[in-house]
Design brief:
Shape: globular
Helix content: under 10%
Largest sheet: 7 strands, mixed
Distance between the termini: 40 Å
Number of helices: 0
Length: 124
């Protein structure tokens, strides 16, 4: 059973940066892709960034392109999300997910392994 543990959330002013980490442990099979999602109360979980396990190919939501960078350290079984130029609208609970399937890497329905989430709050 794979377990995911996120860290690195916090509060920052607009324009600032944060780096999230997601460490995987257990019977690790990250699937085709691992991803970061975010969710605010009353809204659906949104795919933010995904990275393919095989070759490190990345994709991003339009809202974060050019500001966020997803990366992976396969030796540490960890993925990261570097978030720069943060905006108040980036405020959300951020979750990592593993075991995604091609075609669903940025869709929450493609995953059944989730971390507990880490809160990111950006003030104006």
């Amino acid at each position: 059973q794979v377990k995911l543990a996120e860290s690195g959330g916090g509060s920052v002013q607009a324009g600032g940066s944060l780096r999230l980490a997601c460490a995987a442990s257990g019977n690790i099979d990250s699937g085709a892709c691992m991803s970061w999602f975010r969710q605010v109360p009353g809204k659906e979980r949104e795919g933010v960034a995904t990275i393919y396990s095989s070759d490190g190919y990345t994709r991003y939501a339009d809202s974060v392109k050019g500001r966020f960078t997803i990366s992976q350290d396969t030796a540490k079984n960890t993925i990261y999300l570097q978030m720069n130029s943060l905006k108040p609208e980036d405020t959300a609970m951020y979750y990592c997910a593993a075991g995604g399937s091609y075609g669903y890497c940025l869709q929450s329905r493609g995953y059944n392994i989730w971390g507990q989430g880490t809160q990111v709050t950006v003030s104006s």
